[in-house]
């Protein structure tokens, strides 16, 4: 029997009609995640053609991109706290889900949150599934051994109508990560270092499988951080083999299998890892023991360096000069010590409870610098409640940070949370493109530890120089 990779096993199990030279494969979709931004057009097409949603039970809906992160107790509040376009998207999502019979995790639900946070949290994300969403960071769910990727608005309509999707089979890239992480180095630093190594187009056309001793030692929330940013490396998706850590995370969650179904599912999940001898189109290795805390200095996630390093002078050309001018930095000089205006903790990359605990370990007994505004946004209402039960919110408020309701918030600046033009924001999100957090905003990507260190220092700082306090 031919040895198969994790990707090959999941792909082959979901092909309805095989790919040919002329046509893509028809791929069955196990779970369709939807939110308010990329669905209006798709629902309108279904409405115009008189088509119902084929599998509402396999469609998980929430609102996250446009939702304000201040309290909303009724839809009337939207007119006060949300921008007009955002409020319309939210109201349309509520109406679309009501009309098409889809359960919505909305303002009245404790299960509301960022779509890529609540999927795993509820146990809807499971090994071996195909998972899609009209959002590029669907790759997050690959941490569970799922094949998960983003799709466009037209494809959202296809899945709503048929529960299938036309797809060309991607190539495969094995990323071997080995070694023990040093103190102060996190999963976010791993993925930033990898993207800096292979480039923002290094994974183009590929599904990445992350493997090695470092990956096996990570918890599920750290694994999700790495898979989340596979897209920033240009990959179609990122995947990690399910193991006992995966099983324990899913055990007892509301949408996970129960009883005999659970036992059968675990047996199936643990058979998914790549077979010994499975082949990949490419392989890349990363020594995790050599990594330091990472930050970005430019306008794409591949422009990343260790926090203590100087901006490389090896780059050249108009695009590099433009990035340096936009970020107001210089090649040959360090980012360390550069004053910051805002610090944002949140997004589908780093807004989970372990991220918030790391932030609290830096903020405990300290104050946010006078020149800095700090915004902390949990990834879901469940995480918010857990953080508050642990007293983390009290740590944040005592330090002078702003503690909010869940949502995408300042990751993309379309919900009222934006970075003013020209200001520098250290962010735990996933993209540092020009204007991503607001027109003229300048973004430095970092881990929760590094971002928190910047908040209390008032400038970009090495988190290893600050003693953490549990």
Summed up, what is this model?
With 470 residues, the chain is α/β, with parallel strands linked by helices. Helices cover 32% and strands 16% of the residues. The protein contains 16 helices and 19 strands.
Outline the structure in words.
The chain has three domains: 6-167, Aconitase, domain 3 (2-Layer Sandwich), CATH 3.30.499.10; 171-242 and 265-290, 3-Layer(aba) Sandwich (Aconitase, Domain 2); 297-465, Aconitase, domain 3. The chain has 16 helices and 19 strands. It has helices at residues 6-14, 40-49, 78-81, 84-100, 115-122, 153-162, 187-198, 213-217, 220-228, 244-250, 259-269, 318-327, 353-363, 381-389, 392-399, 448-457, and strands at residues 15-17, 25-28, 31-34, 59-62, 104-105, 130-133, 147-150, 164-167, 171-178, 206-211, 237-240, 282-287, 294-296, 304-306, 342-345, 373-376, 402-403, 424-427, 442-445. 32% of the residues lie in helices and 16% in strands. Helix 2 links the parallel strand 3 (31-34) and strand 4 (59-62). The chain has 470 residues and is of the alpha/beta class. The chain has a five-stranded parallel beta sheet, sandwiched between helices. A five-stranded parallel beta sheet has the order 17-16-15-18-19, covered by helices on one side. A four-stranded parallel beta sheet has the order 11-10-9-12.
């Amino acid at each position: 029997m031919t040895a198969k990779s994790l990707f090959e096993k999941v792909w082959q199990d979901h092909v309805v009609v095989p790919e040919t030279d002329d046509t893509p494969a028809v791929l069955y979709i196990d779970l369709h995640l939807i939110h308010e931004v990329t669905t209006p057009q798709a629902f309108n097409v279904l409405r115009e053609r008189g088509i119902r949603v084929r599998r509402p039970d396999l469609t998980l809906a929430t609102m996250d991109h446009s939702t304000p992160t201040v309290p909303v107790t009724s839809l009337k509040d939207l007119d006060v706290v949300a921008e007009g376009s955002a409020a319309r998207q939210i109201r349309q999502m509520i109406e679309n889900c009501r009309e098409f019979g889809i359960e919505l995790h909305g303002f009245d639900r404790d299960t509301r949150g960022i779509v890529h946070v609540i999927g795993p949290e509820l146990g809807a994300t499971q090994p071996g599934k195909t998972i899609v969403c009209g959002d590029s960071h669907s790759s997050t769910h690959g941490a569970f051994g799922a094949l998960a990727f983003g799709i466009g608005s037209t494809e959202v309509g296809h899945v709503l109508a048929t529960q299938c999707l036309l797809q060309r089979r991607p190539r495969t890239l094995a990323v071997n990560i080995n070694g023990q992480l040093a103190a102060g180095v996190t999963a976010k630093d791993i993925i930033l270092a990898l993207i800096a190594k292979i480039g923002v187009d290094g994974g183009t056309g590929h599904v990445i499988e992350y493997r090695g001793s470092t990956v096996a030692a990570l918890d599920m929330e750290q694994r999700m951080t790495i898979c989340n940013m596979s897209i920033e490396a240009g990959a179609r998706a990122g995947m990690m083999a399910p193991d006992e850590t995966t099983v324990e995370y899913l055990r007892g969650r509301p949408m996970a299998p129960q009883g005999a179904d659970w036992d059968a599912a675990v047996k199936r999940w643990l058979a998914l890892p790549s077979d010994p001898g499975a082949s990949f189109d490419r392989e890349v290795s990363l020594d995790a023991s050599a990594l330091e805390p990472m930050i970005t200095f430019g306008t794409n996630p591949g422009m990343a360096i260790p926090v203590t390093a100087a901006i490389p002078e090896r780059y050249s050309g108009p695009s590099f000069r433009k990035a340096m001018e936009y970020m107001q930095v210089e090649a040959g000089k360090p980012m360390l010590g550069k004053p910051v205006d805002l610090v944002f903790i949140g997004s589908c990359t780093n807004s989970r409870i372990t991220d918030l605990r790391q932030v609290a370990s830096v903020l405990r007994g300290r104050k946010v610098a006078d020149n800095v505004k700090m915004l902390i946004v949990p990834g879901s209402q469940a995480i918010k409640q857990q953080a508050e039960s642990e007293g983390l919110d009290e740590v944040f408020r005592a330090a002078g940070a702003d503690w909010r309701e869940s949502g995408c918030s300042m990751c993309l600046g379309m919900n009222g949370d934006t970075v003013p033009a020209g200001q520098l924001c250290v962010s735990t999100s996933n993209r540092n493109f020009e204007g991503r957090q607001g027109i003229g905003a300048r973004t430095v990507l970092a881990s929760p530890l590094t971002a928190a260190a910047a908040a209390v220092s008032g400038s970009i700082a090495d988190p290893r120089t600050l003693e953490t306090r549990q």
